[in-house]
Amino acid sequence: MIHRLIALVAAMVAALVWAPAASAQTDVALATCFRHVQPGDRPAALFGAMDGFACRTPRRSDGPGDYWVRSAPLPPVDGDVTIRSGSLWQDSATIYVLYADGSIRSLGFTSANAWQHLELGAIFSLPLPRATAKPVRLLWHVRGAANLRGLVLGPRLMSSDVAQSHALALAAFYAAFVGLAGALLIFNAALGAALRQRFHPPYCAMVVSLIAYAASSSGLLSQLTGLDNNVRLRLNVLLLAATLSSALIFARRFFGADVTRGWLRPAIDLGIVALLGSATAYVVLMPWHPVLLDRAMALSFMAALLLTLPLLWRGWHGKDRYARPFAIAWGLPMLTAMARVLQALGVLQWNFWIDNSTLIAMALEACCSALAIAWRIKQLGEERDAAREQEMLARLLADSDPLTGLMNRRSFLREAIGRCEPHVLILVDIDHFKQVNETLGHDGGDQVLRVFAQALRHAAPGDALVSRIGGEEFAILAHRDATDLPEAILASIRAAPMPFDLAVTASLGSECGAIATETDWKKLYGRADDALFAAKRAGRDRLRWAAAA
After folding, report:
1. pLDDT of 371 strictly over 70
2. Residue span of the structural domain in which 513 resides
3. Which of 70, 76, 227, 390 is deepest in the core (most CB within 10 A)?
4. Model-level pTM?
């Protein structure tokens, strides 16, 4: 496989570098007539006989079987010329070439070796055998034709320089598509791994299926692996069904529950089952009743496409801001996919660009959907950030004293208990706080409490725990080295400007010890509390350390 890929790339580069100079260019569409194969048919007789040949279109109504297809007289050609036509389901095709001197030469392929003549775009290209006389007419002998899209698809007579230009254009087209799809796949796979959103896996599956479909439908897979052409056509159907199914699953997960409510969700599930079921039946049963299988597949595709209409309608009119760009992104793929279905049903005639429009439209859809995904991720990020802010705010309110903004008793104990190293615990109690409330009122008392809190914050080091543990009582826990902290706190309180210049003092009790367990806390708190009462008994507006045990 690797050496075939290298050879293909080398051929493309060589074609670019050593492209022939402009010559007599030939690019002629060939009109054809057809008839069923009959016993005793001979190519030489069929070149001149018109009996039994029909030139009408479409030809699919004649059903599957073996056919003769004869071209109109060929225009004069010079140089190397190829016969080009689209790929169809057939067991084999032999092309007879009638020359002006009456000689006939033949060339052809079977489904098994068709890959040797398959170019990008799933185009069969066979060089016309050289002869001294000019070619005047072509005759195809097609065996085992399913006749779903015709017998010989878009036959053209094309000079080598024109064929080379077409091949290079198609190579650039497919390369650009695969590069774009590959970039989108890597981008969304990385986002999916990081964000773990439910819609990322089906989106990545859609892009992978689309890349695989491009490799198969373009003929590249057959060129690299020697895949049987009829097997490749089976694979095309399966990959296209997988692409559309993944897209429906992605859309169902991408939109909110209000968009897929009611009957739409089970209908989408049923549509996916029908789509995969008809594709599987096509793969397994072809060429048994090919028209029936092809019609069932086309109708299941149409049903799946029609299900996207209410999905996009609800998304457009829904509350989600990202729904509208998504609906716009799917507009073009919906139209081109519908054109493909109508072509499969025989409403539209076959056209190369309609046949390949799926790749263009899905590439554009993948880009637009990527923008919609980025928009939704932005929205999810904003919602998550807002939720985190609310959670942090709620946690802060739960752990804080609402009046002073200091830690409350619960959060103080949660942070304090478990410290095995000795720490300094300072208890602060406002002196005669009842009189403060009676003098200033409760609003004034609240203001005094806030001033106290600011004084404690100002004096305490940054790593200390400062808490209002109840009423007019405060607690500070600092490292054991902060032995001069009680004096600093007392000085800060004395210097704090109180409301209405009221003289307000406080008593402090301090002790140093470890708080490894709740029992240690109770012991340390008890000794500091004893020191606090000692300060009050000594006249207040002072501090005391706990007496040595």
Report:
1. no
2. 409-545
3. 70
4. 0.65
